[in-house]
Amino acid sequence: xxxxxxxxxxxIGHSLSPHMQNAVLNHHSxxxxxxxxxxxxxxxEEGIKGLKALNIKxxxxxxxxxxxxxxxxxEIDELAREIGAVNTVVNENGRYVGYNTDGDGYLxxxxxxxxxxxxxDQSVLILGAGGAARALLFTIAAKGQANCIDIANxxxxxxxxxxxxxxxxxxxxxxxxxxxxxxxxxxxIIINTTAVGMSPNVEESPLSLQHVKKGxxxxxxxxxxxxxxxxxxxxxxxxxxxxxxxxxxxQGALAFEKWTGVQPDVKVMEDVVLRHLxxx
Length: 280
Ligand code: NAP
Known about the structure:
Strand content: 15-25%
Strand order of the largest sheet: 2-1-3-5-6-4
Number of strands: 12
Bound molecules: NADP nicotinamide-adenine-dinucleotide phosphate
Radius of gyration: 19 Å
Structural class: alpha/beta
Largest sheet: 6 strands, mixed
Distance between the termini: 34 Å
Order of helices and strands: EHEHEEHEEHEHEHEHEEHEHH
C-alpha cells in the first residue's frame, strides 16, 4: 500500500512541494504519494488528528501553521523548539515528532553555493526579523561558525527581540535599514529574509546595495521570482547572487530523508521546481 506524505497550509494551492516530492519519490522507486491539504484555521486540530488517524508517514507544515502545529505533536526536536516553529513532522513508530529543516536547508544550500565547509571568518547581515530570519539566525549561530551575525529590520524592536532570544550569543548587533545600507561594506554575506521583492512586487528591493563589497555574497530566500531585483543589483555591483531555490529544495530534501531514510537526488528536486517556476 502506498505510504502517504503531505503538506498542510492555508492557502496551499501555490505550493510546489507536491511536484518536488512526488518526483523524487518516483525517482527513488518509493511507493508513496505526497498530497497538499488545505486546512482552514478553525479546522486545524481536526485536520492534524485526521492525518494521524490515516497513519501518515510524514508531513510538511507551511504558512500559517508552523507555530500552531506544535500544540498537536508528541515531541519537538530541540532546534525546532528553540526556533519556535516546525516545518516537518515525522511519524516515528506512531509518535509524531516535529523538526525545523528551514535553517539547516538554508545553511546547506549556502555552503554548497560558496563551496565552503563553514562560514568561519565571515561577517553576516540578515535583513528581516520574522519567522524565516529566526530559523536562519538560530541555525547559523549554532552551526555556521560565522564571525558575527547582525540583524537589520524595518521594525528595530523586533530585530532586538530576535537577537536577544537567540540561544547562542553571536556578538551580533541590530541596525536600521539605513544604517545597514551605509555599513554594507563590512559584510561578506547579506541575506534577505523579508518578503520585499517577492512576486507580484518584483520591482521592490529591501535595501540599496550601493556600498556592497565586491565579491561579497548577496542571498535572497525568495524564489519567486528566481532572480529578485536585489540579486540583479548584486550582480551589477560585482557581488555573488545566491537564490532562494536552494533553501526550498534543501528543506524538502532534509524532510524527505527523515521520512524515508533515503538521501534524495537534489538535482531531480531542483529541476522540477525550476520547471514549474519557469511556467509561472
Ligand atoms: P514574516 O514572519 O511575516 O516576516 C516578514 C519580515 O519581512 C519582517 O522582518 C518584516 O519587517 C519584513 N517586511 C515585510 N514587509 C516589509 C516591507 N514592505 N518593508 C520592509 N520590511 C518588510 O515572514 P517569513 O515567514 O519570515 O517569510 C519571509 C520571506 O521568506 C517570504 O518571502 C517567504 O516566501 C520566504 N521564505 C522562503 C523560504 C524558502 O524555502 N526559500 C522558506 C520560508 C520563507 P517588520 O518586522 O518590520 O514587519
